[in-house]
Amino acid sequence: MRQLARMRRGAMTAALLAAVTGSLMTGCTAGGGATDDGRGRTQGPTAGNDGTGNDGTAKSGSVLAVKIDNVRAARPQTGLDAADVVYAEQVEGGLSRLMAVYASRFPKVVGPVRSARESDLELLRQFDEPTLAFSGAQHKLLPLIDKAPLHAQPPESVSGAYYRGTDKPAPHNLYLRPQRLVGSAPGSAALTTGFHFGKAPAGGSPETSRTVRFPAARFTFTWSDSRQRWLVDMDGTPTVTTEGKKVAPATVVVQYVKVRASQFHDVLGNNTPYTETVGSGKAKVLRDGRVFDANWARPSATDGTEFTTTGGAPMNFAQGQVWVVFAKA
């Protein structure tokens, strides 16, 4: 049933993706580090709006993917440590944005929530009808999001699920209450990523630290023997949540992909990068204080991504949170 559904959705979304033409203008600014794109369809409810209304369009039982702001003004983030998978992608001006995917459990609050990108639609095709929480998107991209095989949930769609905090200036203060959006977490079986978990393969090399650089952002993962986890630094600052918890994945994947120019631009003419997650290529997998050479393959958008050792065996990940950083091949 799942495979048939994916086949039906595949033809529809492939045509939609191909239909996107022209450049799009947004409110993105560049320079100064804390860049803001101002793409939300609304400014969202205020912190005092505690309504519990729900229009019922969110998919109960599917994963929840949340686009999370990642400029300096947005940090520290909330709920990032509870995600099963965190994807890091390049956006305009060489900056970064995160997509946190939740299935095992929902934190009370996630954020700050920001806008979606065209690449997100391809990345999310690996899940069955996922719910995408985002603050908005370029106006010409919105119809494509609305028709994609996912449940799009911007702030105006569900009363009381989003609110504006008071700890940061807008637009870096939009937060989501996941349970008001989709109810209970679906469980880890909803994570159709293709990832394998288990004992580490033989080989690899000792690794204490690994840095991945974007043109205007960087991620550093440092192995902690005491935690048996990789401690995350972003742009040279340790990554902690608003509750002071260190973000520490068990596995980090540096996935080398094609990052090409898309058809979208911001108001300053900066191109919106498109990260291609369908295809194949090389990867570095960090686990247990070691780094392993790996290959990745995702034949179609409806497939998960399979990681294998250089010898062709499944590349097992360590149990726990996984970070995937899309680096330019």
Radius of gyration, whole Å: 19 Å
Biggest sheet record: 12 strands, mixed
What's the number of extended β-strand segments?
20
Q: Please, what is the average pLDDT? A: 84
Structure annotation, total helices: 4
What general outline do the C-alpha atoms trace? globular
Find the structural class using helix and strand composition.
Answer: mainly beta
Considering DSSP H and I runs of 4 or more, what fraction of the residues is helical?
A: 10-25%
Q: Which stretches are poorly predicted, pLDDT < 50 over at least 5 residues?
A: 1-57
What string, H for helix and E for strand, traces the elements in order? Answer: HEEEHEHEEEHEEEEEEEEEEEEE
Oligomeric category? single chain
Q: Beta fraction of the residues?
A: 25-35%
Q: Give the termini distance in whole angstroms.
A: 35 Å
Keywords: Signal
Pfam families: DUF3048, DUF3048_C
Domain DUF3048: 58-185, 211-324
Organism: Streptomyces sp. R41
Q: What does this entry look like structurally?
A:
With 329 residues, the chain is mainly beta. 11% of the residues lie in helices and 33% in strands. The protein contains 4 helices and 20 strands. The chain has helices at 2-18, 118-124, 142-147, 178-182; strands at residues 64-68, 85-90, 96-102, 131-133, 151-153, 162-164, 174-176, 196-197, 205-206, 209-214, 217-224, 229-234, 237-238, 251-265, 271-276, 279-287, 290-298, 306-309, 316-317, 322-328. The strands form 4 sheets. Strands 1, 2, 3, 4, 5, 9, 14, 15, 16, 17, 18 and 20 form a 12-stranded mixed sheet that branches. Strands 10-11-12-13 form a 4-stranded antiparallel sheet, with no helix packed on it. The protein has a two-stranded antiparallel ribbon with strand order 6-7. Strand 11 (217-224) and strand 12 (229-234) form a beta hairpin. The two termini are 35 Å apart.
